[in-house]
Amino acid sequence: MGPPGSGKGTQSQSIVDKVSIIQISTGDMLRKAVSEETELGVKAKGLMDSGELVPDEVINGIIEERIREKDCENGFIADGFPRTNEQAKTLDELLEREKKQIDHVVFFDVPEKELIMRLLARAEKENRTDDTLEVIKNRLIVFRKNTESLIEYYQKRNLIRYIDGTGNPEDVKERLFRAIGE
Ligand code: ADP
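# adenosine-5'-diphosphate complex -> structure
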């Protein structure tokens, strides 16, 4: 978990490299669907381009399908979901069915000023249509709107690990591994 630009994708990759489990990114799956112009992609594009969330039932559907696949058998890193309490509840139900449980919920903490700088810098390198200042601001608003109750949801189960997400990725990675005991 963490706001846009907080390093979720980058740090997920560092776990993938160290422990052999896979990463599932709803953002990547949606971007793939958009580029392939599938039915899902066509539905999601406008919402993504304006920084709004794709509806829970759509996300829940793609997650359900994805975690049934064989490569998820040994566990996975959820990157970019759940983003709402509704998604968190569905994830719990799906995990229960698979006899799996959540080990850690990692939250990357980065001040907004730095997030905006990072995302604008990324806009120059990658071609993400949602990395414009206006859309970035909306993504941050949407993030704040859903986060509190989601944190509460996991806090009750003592699963949240706060990580200082500032500084260089190597330092963040060290903090991350310390927090999850790897
Ligand atoms: P970021 O965290 O930088 O915003 P993501 O790649 O995780 O990047 O998400 C990009 C966009 O994809 C979001 O703004 C949203 O429109 C959509 N999206 C991704 N994951 C979800 C999700 N779990 N629920 C709803 N929408 C999602």
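# post-check
The chain is about 60% helix and 10% strand.
The mean pLDDT is 95.
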